[in-house]
Amino acid sequence: MRIVIIALMLFFSVSMSGQAKPERPEVLVEYQSISIGESFAFDDYEIQFDNVLSDSRCPKAVMCVVAGEAVGNVAIYKSGELISETELTFTPITYLPNQKGNLFDADDFKVTGVELWPYPKAGHPIPFKSYKLKLLIEEIIK
Fold it and tell me: According to the 3-state scheme, what is the secondary structure of 12-50?
């Protein structure tokens, strides 16, 4: 009986080690920052940061009842044609990289809006043209 058990264990260990492990695709990661009115182009795509629609985030060093949010408008073009227009909402409690592809999600790449800065400071209004949008671009290499 011991010989049968040992033979079965040997058989299963050899058969399990021979199975191919699935290959993970290689992912190219890049961060890009763009200002209002600017765009970032890659392949046939162009991402344009159009506008900050609102910014009610609680300034640094201020106690607020509500944390507030900032909303930015982003347009995506492919070969010069508008294919998507998205409003991204940034809040202090939302970590946008956890929402991969929140801006654009295709088969071979994802674009995620990560951060909108500068963050407000008490008594210092942010000039409209000072806003920047940080993007995370993840391209799957096949």
Answer: HHHHHHCCCCCCCCEEEEEEEEEECCCEEEECCEEEEEE
Cα separation, 50 vs 29, in Å, equals: 24
Q: Would you call 105 helix, strand, or coil by DSSP?
A: strand
Percentage of the residues of the chain whose pLDDT score is greater than 70:
78
The Cα–Cα gap between 142 and 135 comes to 22
Q: Which domain holds residue 104?
A: 23-141
**Among 117, 116, 120, 111, which residue's Cα sits nearest to residue 140?**
111
Residue 17 lies in a domain: no
In sequence order, the 6+-apart residues with CB closer than 8 A to the CB of 12 are none
pLDDT at 76: 92
Q: Dig out the tokens for 42 from the structure.
A: 């890659």
Listed as ranges, residues in the chain with pLDDT below 70 are 1-22, 93-101
Number of domains present in the structure of the chain? 1
Domain holding 104: CATH number?
2.60.98
